[in-house]
Structures are given as structure tokens and as C-alpha cells.
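Archive entry. Fields below.
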Amino acid sequence: MAKKASSSSPRTDPPAPADAFVWTRKDLLGLDELSAQEILHVLDTAGSFEEVSTRSIKKVPALRGKVVALLFFEDSTRTRMSFELAASRLSADTLQMSAKGSSVTKGETTLDTARNIAAMGVDVLVIRHSQSGAPHMLARQMPESIINAGDGQHEHPTQALLDMYTIRQRLGGIEGLTVAIVGDIAHSRVARSNILGLRKLGARVIVVGPPTLVPGAITAMGCEISHSLDDVLGEVDVINMLRIQFERFSSNLFPSVREYSQSYGLNSQRLKRCRKDVLVMHPGPINRGVELTSDVADGPNSCILQQVTNGLAIRMAVLYLVTQGNR
Amino acid sequence: MAKKASSSSPRTDPPAPADAFVWTRKDLLGLDELSAQEILHVLDTAGSFEEVSTRSIKKVPALRGKVVALLFFEDSTRTRMSFELAASRLSADTLQMSAKGSSVTKGETTLDTARNIAAMGVDVLVIRHSQSGAPHMLARQMPESIINAGDGQHEHPTQALLDMYTIRQRLGGIEGLTVAIVGDIAHSRVARSNILGLRKLGARVIVVGPPTLVPGAITAMGCEISHSLDDVLGEVDVINMLRIQFERFSSNLFPSVREYSQSYGLNSQRLKRCRKDVLVMHPGPINRGVELTSDVADGPNSCILQQVTNGLAIRMAVLYLVTQGNR
Amino acid sequence: MAKKASSSSPRTDPPAPADAFVWTRKDLLGLDELSAQEILHVLDTAGSFEEVSTRSIKKVPALRGKVVALLFFEDSTRTRMSFELAASRLSADTLQMSAKGSSVTKGETTLDTARNIAAMGVDVLVIRHSQSGAPHMLARQMPESIINAGDGQHEHPTQALLDMYTIRQRLGGIEGLTVAIVGDIAHSRVARSNILGLRKLGARVIVVGPPTLVPGAITAMGCEISHSLDDVLGEVDVINMLRIQFERFSSNLFPSVREYSQSYGLNSQRLKRCRKDVLVMHPGPINRGVELTSDVADGPNSCILQQVTNGLAIRMAVLYLVTQGNR
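PREDICTED_STRUCTURE:
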């Protein structure tokens, strides 16, 4: 169902899920719990929603009269906007709570806050929280649908889903690809969700970064480790460059921003040593000149803005599926 | 018209307002100004809106094309969200102004701010303000409908209306009941609006708290005073536990949080000494272990989340009625 | 097409633009780039939208399914609310980003932020930015429509358009009028956009203020300078009083608020020396007793709230036209 872009190296996906496949989960908590078939079903559903965003009237009535609450206990403009727009494109009403200045959260447990907002007649709660596992705890205790929009250093499933959607769109499939994820692996929920999902769909994953930012135990997730970006350039089909959090530099995990950029930044010299159609990804926002030079970020291998566009389709699919799974 | 839950102690309401009753107020400012008949009319109207929130498509077109502005000069996530959702469930558009970082309020009077926002074509202004009487001042000077969402230590009418709606729903009526309101009576607009409304509907009201937080003059509102929660447990049909504002403890009005909780907190021991179907209420957010222990807050006597749900129906009713009263 | 209020001094506009006129701009960046014909076309289009705001159901489906993003890199409650309501009155969805606490902007260029939000499927970006020229830069680099909602000390085109709309509505036309703009001309984007627009439509413009706040070079824009408000009162058809930014007083540009008010504030004595139907304008929010006394602000010559109301019609027109110009 998903549109596949023409590409110089088409690959074949696993067979599309049978039409008979029925999504049964009321929540989307992480890639960890999803089967390969479920992941592909989300991508296929997103494929059918992608077309909506190209219409002159970008709306479908699928969730009309439903309410989606965006509970961002941790701030995130970009992900919040994407979920908000996805919900309104499905004709749902949205309700927002941001952490700052919220009287709801004063002295109140996360569960009480969520239950109170749900009691207003909310169908789906999209949760971002600094504590790993917070959405899972809510999902166990509440009948409403819970979507994890990023929990601590644990998972960020919709980001990984939109990344996989974009890879499949540009390269025709995921199985058999080699994907490098570069940067602060230790603290990245984007990395964790990507590793889990890519492995389930049959990709090889190499995580790349300095030893202080790449824990050895990560290989238990089925990925390989490299401490040299230069060593892996020749092998990769996709390079996903993680955003560097500058506040970590002061913590002595990095020598300096400049040194990090020299060892692990992607520039045109390094790009020349990759295969011609290598896909350059970044979850945004970009630190230009740090993770990526501008010529790479804006060049033909980059799919960074396409990732953002695809995020809408993925979030529409996820909002739609969890309400279907909660009847 | 309101649904009455089956209950072990059904009571009879005053006769329902005749169908011929016509709401004529353009504003909802407080329980002080409402007649018993008007209060019952709001509750009955909420009863007919309650059903909307149980539909798959939770929307009615009653206020389509109308604009409801939420002017929160004082922050309130919970009440704001409830009004926002009530407005959108009636198909109105909403417009929000929060106090923080608002350029509207710089050097501008409250009346100028309200008039300017109204001049954009707003039909209803929902006002929360730290100054007692601010909504009343606006209502006198402006042709638009004004709803008081809490003014200083004065009134919070929609909270009292949803409390009374919930009591009637659970216990079948209000007349003849004994209701205890426990906590910081002196500073509570929730207490004031509840006392006014409950008395008008024929309930007996006992306010309970330490002498520093219960002004003797409050008996002029028709309620009784007790400084011992234990003394009144055997008499009450409803216990409404007010939220404690921790910042007041430092002001020497309370000895300590622990001491307050021991004297005025509701726990399972105290609950056993009440009648079996006593109703436990709280306007939220709860400080678990202070006003209420968790077993009581989450137990069968508690209607705390039902209060939140009913808040939607009450706010839909109020938004609907004031626009009807402003034709 | 615009409704003309009856007035004691009707004047004649230039002939209305032929029906055949087709708006071709995808952006609205400033009055500087617009021809007189284009300005009049915006005013005429606003005239046809003004009627929508008087309907019981204040909505038209013109932009249904379109998305308008409000990117306020600099805060503005009032202008943001006006654009938000204009968009929803046209049935568009809106998406908001405010500068404060926005994770989008961390280390990200303005262009990257705008492009990322646009990639979500946004049709129109309304930009307020502290840097002069920021909307112009975005308009050159992005295919989406850009509307300038105020850029640095450069332009604020929708404010000038609503001012001109209001003048035409109240006085029947603009050509041949004498308009005084009073206050901090040097730092005012409202003044700049008004001067540009009024001159193009054939009005005489006198800017009035103390020498420290009125740069001599401003005469290059075709206006005259006066340092005495009293000197010009007898000549003017319109007095537009700019808002004083108190933070500038400490910078020694003004002697004191009181002294400023005595020399350049409008009060009833000064109003008596103007022609009887002189129009008093202010972009808001008013500092009562500084730029204007209350009797003048609330008197029959004032059209301050009408300006706010007309702002909706102007912003509906601009949102509509730029999407028409971007097909």
C-alpha cells in the first residue's frame, strides 16, 4: 500500500501483511513490543494516509468527535506540532498540556494528572515524559489509548517508525540494508527505537560514536559497534546522524564540540566515500556544522525534511490504529 | 431531565423547572446571584448534555461559528482544558490568552484587554482573575457574555455547579442532605460557591477546619462551623475535601502538613465512621496523603473523577445558556 | 466592495480595482512592495469578508483543509490571536509556535525552523521576528506563503492595512487626507508601514514626536516632520497615536513619561482644536493617560476597537489572497 519511490537500488520488502491483519493494541508504547508484522502494518497504514496530505483539503473524518490530549510533561515543540496536526487532519479535537506552569501537575502524580484529563472524555493520550516507562505505567492502569511520544532515554517509537517509513520510501525496503546510527547512543531514545525496529525488519545496524557515548551492552540489542565513522562509510546504505545535546559536552563525555565534529560529523568528503545513493537522516533539529555540514544536510542524499513530512503520515496512522484497537 | 444514579438512599429533588422556564442571564458570575430555580435549570441542561459525551462522535453543533475566548489572567490548566473541550464539543471556536508572557496585558487595564479581545468578534469570555469581582465588573461594562472561571477568593461557580450535579447524580437529590466542606475555608472560592448553592437547594452545610482557616463570619452564609472532623463524620452525607495550598503552611496558619493531615485528613478509619454510602469529593488536584489517603481517594465512596467528567457537561450547559441569554 | 460608513466629510477613493484584477503574490511582506492597486484590492477583499464576522455562524469554508502556522519568534498575544481567529473563520487549521521554551529553535536557524514546520504540510506561515527582513528571507527561499506579522523595526503590514481600512470606512476614502502619526517614529514598524501605504494611496503624512524619536531621514519616505503636536492639530483628518515602549524612557531618549505625555499626549483640550470629525487611532495596547486620556480613547472620535475588529477582516483577506496567489 505504501508508495515506493523509484530508486537506483530497489530492494524487496517482506510480503505485505495480509488484508486480514487486524491491529489489536490500544497503545503504542515502543518498538520493543511490536512484531515485524505490526511494524509493517503501521508503515502500510501510513502509506494510505500519506496521500491525504497531498490533497487540497488535507482532512479525513476518521477521528471526528474524538479527543486527543497531548500531555507533554517534557517540552517538545516539533513532536507536539506533528501530533497536533496529525490529529486535526483526522478531524479529532486536541487538548494540550505543557509541563511549564501547569497547575495540573502541582503535587499531583503523573497517573492522577493523566486520569483527570482522561476523565474529561479523552480517547487518546499522547505522552512525553522524562521518566522511562511512564507511558507503559499509564497504559497498564488506564482504559484509554496511550501513545509514547518519547520517554526518558528509553523509546521514541513514532520517530523510529517515520525513519523506517522514509528508508522504505527512498530505498524500496529495509531487509538486508546496513544502517549506521551515529552519535550519543547511550542517551538516545531515538537510537534505541531505531535499533529495535530495524533489527526486526531484517536490517544490519552499526552504532557509531566515541566509547564514552556508546555502551558495550548495546550489542545485546543485536547491533554492532564502531568507534570510527570513517571505518563504516563504505558499508552503509543509511546514515542516521543523532542530534548532539550540547549540555553533555560540559560533562566531560566529549572532549569538545570541534573534536566531536571532526571525528563524527558528516561532511562532503566523508559522503564521497559512501555509496552514491546513501541516505542521510537526522531527527532534527540540526546543529549545522556539528553533526552535518550544510552541503550534506541540504544535498540530494539528505531526506531530513522528508522525514518530517512522513512523521505526519506515521502519526496519523498510529492515532488511527490505537483507536481501532480500543473499541 | 438529569439522569439519577440508583442509590441506597434516594432523595427527592424539588420539582423540575417547568419546560416554560427561560434562562435570561447573559453571564454566569456566581451562585450568589442565582435562584434555586436557575441552579436547577443549569443542572438539568447539563443532564441533557451529559449524553453527548458518551457518544462515539462527541459533538453537537449548538455553538458552531461562535467564538469562546478563554482569558486566564491567573493560570489554571485543568479548568481551562475543561472549558476548552466543552466549547469544542459545542462546535465553538476557542481563543486562548494566558497571563504569562502576554503582551496584551502590559500596562493595559483588564477592561481594555477584555474589550480588545471581544472586538475580534468573541461571543463569550471565560475569565479567571486573581481579583475578586473582576468578572462582575466586565459583565456590567460589556455586551458579551462573561463566565466566571474563578475570581480571587470570591466564587468559582462552575466548580460548585459540577459538585452539586455530582451529588444529585449519586444521591438522587440535594435537599435535606448534610454536606461537610473541609479545609482552608477562609481562602477558598470553591467553598464559598458551594455553600451558597447548597444552601439555596436546601442542604445543611458544615464547614470544618482549624480556627485559623475558618472565619467565624462565614456563618452569615447559612452554614455551621466545626473545628473537629471527627465530630461530624456520623452526620454527613457528603464530605468535600478542599485542596491544601502548601504555600500557606509557611505563613503560620497551619502548624505543619503532618499535623493538618492528622486532624483534617480523610482516611479509611474515619471513613468507617461515616454512613456507608457517604460521598467523598475533592476539586483536585489531590495531594495524596494530605487531604485524602489513596485508599479513600480511589475507593467506592469517591466520586472525584466523576466530578471531572461532569465538569464538561456543566460547562457545556453554562456556555450554551449564556449565549441563549444574550440574544 | 468595501462598505463605507456615512460620514460628515465623505471623500472619493480612486476607482475600485477592476473585477479582472488578479492577485499574484504568494507572500505579504510589506507595504513597500505593494502597488496602490494591490493595497486597494486587499482592502476591497477585506470588505467582502467583513460581513462574515457579523453572521451568527462566523465561518466560511474558503481555506478548509489548509494549515496556517503561526511562528512567533517574538511574542505577541494580540496579533497572534487575530491571525488565529482569522484563520479559523476561514476554516483553516492552525499550528502555533511561540519563541519561549521552543525546542524547535534550540541551535536551529530561522530558515531550518520554518522549513521543518512547513514540511509538516503547512500552506501559510505567519512570521513575527525580531530581525528586520526575516520574513523576506524566508519568502525567497520557501515555496510556501509567508505573511509578515511584524519584523524588527521594519514593517507590520497587516496593521497598516487595517488602519487604512478603518480610515476608509470612517472617512470614505484616503486620497487627499492629512494623517498625523505621533510618537516613537524611529523604532516603529507600524509607523513605517503606515507611511508607505498612506503615501501610495495619496494621503499627506506628518510624523510628530521629539527630535530624539523622529529621524530626519524619514522624510525620504515622503512624509513631513513636526516636533509639535499642537502645531498640526488644525490640519489633520486622522491622528494615529503610537504606543510608547516604557523601556525606552530609561535610555534617555525621553525626558520623562510625564513630560512626553504633556507634549505629545492627546487629551480633550487638544481634541477640541482638531476638526470635529477627526479620527483618533491607536494600534494598542493603550497606555491610558500617556498617549491618550481616557475620555479621548473612549470618545466618539476614537476608532480604536473598530481597528481591532477590522483587523480580523484584513487578516482573513490576506490569508485568502496569498493562498490564491500560491496555486
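CURATOR_NOTE: The mean pLDDT of chain B is 90.
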